[in-house]
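Workshop exercise sheet. Pairs work together: one partner reads the sequence aloud, the other fills in the structure field after running the prediction. Swap roles for the next sheet.
Pair: D.N. / O.F.
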Amino acid sequence: MGIFKNKVVWITGATSGIGEALAKEFALQGAKIIISSRRIEELERVKNLLKLPEGDLLILPLDLEDLSNINILSQLVINKFGRIDILVNNGGISQRSLTKDTSIETDRKLMEVNFFGTVALTKSVLPYFLKQKGGHIVVVSSIVGKFGFHLRSAYAASKHALHGFFESLRMEIYNENVKVLIVCPGKIRTNISINAYTGDGSKHGKMDDSTNKGLSPEDCARKILKGIENNKEEILIGGNDIKAVFLKRFFPTLFSIIIRKQKAE
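Structure field:
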């Protein structure tokens, strides 16, 4: 089963899309898994799909906007498994609204969930990684963590913030045998656009055509596990869309001309 057999893996946003696919893939690899999201009934559904022994699976409901019990949840993981080997920060929410139409409350909520929630959970787990002299932090960002895009101002800001924070953290813990992988997916066939916030914080409720044509969550999950196995610091996952990252790096003026003309959904 490889390097993930008996590893203790905590996955947020584990009840759909990339998170659910990661839970299934880690289960196939023989890992012990903690699955977290806000929806208890969906956590139960994923638990039944994984078919793991009770001793190898823990359900922990978690709302990344509510940081009050994060240290308690981390301690529950330690109480059950004795350690945490991999933390996958996958939970988050996207956006589909023009900057001028987006309330500051919605901007703040996106930052609370995508950035502060992720940072708080990581800080809660980090002492255990340092104590056990090992661990792997996986952060699911986005290609808009590398550049801005239409209808994504606060979402892109939250993902840019993750890069700054976790690149800094990686340097600080490099000699502690704790690794950090930042994952930048492009278009992945998930419900991300359906659940995205509009300007007033309501759900977008529609599947973007480009998202519907994206890479499968299962393929994305397998690439993430390969990135962990190979100790990568950052990986891009997607189709032609990820070429935009390289276009911006090497031809920034041309990138600006092209990206402005791209369809926003």
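Discussion prompt: Residues 104-131 form the longest helix (28 residues). What would you look at next?
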